[in-house]
Write a sequence for this structure.
């Protein structure tokens, strides 16, 4: 996995900047620190995922309209482990697991396929939320499409981005 490239999708940068502002001096903001009224233009791009432990699981709590349009479905209330991603579920979970383990944001650029859609080059940004700095209880994330791509996904097409840039 290569590192260092910056985010290109404007709404991902805006969500990152909002998260940084709400975080203040903490490692991560709490869900209660976020107020959708502060950023109404970004709400369609929000994806909120609950993180539960024992066993570790990820459940989509809220999926903005732009995300459902990109993916072609509304998976609100479903977990990543359910039959949303088939054999790709472990690859999708990889970034979520990285956020939980590091308690730090993760940004990637990769090729993804959504339900009955063409292969797309996307950027994804995942930002941890927690009541304390010790445990991630929710993840604020978003996806943005860069360009259509006919290429199939292989591990070397995933690039980890510098979320700060």
């Amino acid at each position: 996995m290569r590192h260092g490239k910056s985010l290109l999708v404007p709404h991902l940068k805006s969500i990152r900047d909002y998260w940084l502002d709400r975080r203040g001096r903490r490692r991560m903001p709490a869900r209660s620190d976020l107020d959708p009224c502060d950023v109404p233009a970004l709400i369609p791009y929000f994806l909120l995922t609950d993180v539960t432990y024992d066993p570790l699981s990820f459940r989509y709590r809220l999926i903005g309209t732009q995300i459902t349009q990109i993916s072609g479905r509304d998976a609100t209330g479903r977990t990543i482990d359910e039959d949303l991603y088939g054999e790709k579920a472990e690859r999708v979970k990889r970034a979520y697991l990285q956020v939980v383990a590091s308690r730090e944001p993760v940004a990637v650029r990769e090729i993804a396929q959504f339900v009955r859609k063409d292969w797309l080059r996307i950027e994804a940004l995942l930002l941890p939320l927690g009541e304390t700095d010790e445990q991630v209880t929710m993840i604020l994330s978003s996806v943005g499409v860069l360009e259509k791509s006919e290429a199939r996904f292989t591990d070397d097409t995933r690039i980890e981005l510098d979320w700060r840039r």
